[in-house]
Design goal:
Chain lengths: 110, 115
Amino acid sequence: GENVEQHPSTLSVQEGDSAVIKCTYSDSASNYFPWYKQELGKRPQLIIDIRSNVGEKKDQRIAVTLNKTAKHFSLHITETQPEDSAVYFCAASIHNDMRFGAGTRLTVKP
Amino acid sequence: SAVISQKPSRDICQRGTSLTIQCQVDSQVTMMFWYRQQPGQSLTLIATANQGSEATYESGFVIDKFPISRPNLTFSTLTVSNMSPEDSSIYLCSAGGQGAVYGYTFGSGTRLTVV
């Protein structure tokens, strides 16, 4: 089955800096790659997603890139703010069967 | 995107008893899933709830322990049976459509404590 690895497990940045979280997946048939943000005690919230026919997608301060050949995808957050502090999960999906990475705890220091 | 109502939000249960968790989606969705999340950990897929047929369970999860119902395209239940303290966790349902136009949405979770 699909295996998703996520790095780093923790990330601390200064407010205004950029943050990058990277994920790799094992099954080349995966075709959908969402990213979720989970604040303490709350449900995971979809923040951005990308499909296998697209290499990059951007939504304001958040962007995701996908390299199908290398089977990795990344989340980029620019101009980080304290409210970006949360746990971020990547996921890879084949035919609606979605597997999650282990998560990255992002801390943005004011 | 779909909005999911999940209940109960939390419960404390005696070992040996069972708890049924409900998820109601505000629109018809193709796929519904059940996940377990230990505090500080990632999400582990328990099963895919199939409408009108038996759920598809992941390795390590069995129907006798986690029976699932999905009578229609907007509702599903997960029962945690014969509970032990090891079942203490957060249980979340998720829903989405084929092709995931809006991605998968999660319910608010059920925090289960077994004593």
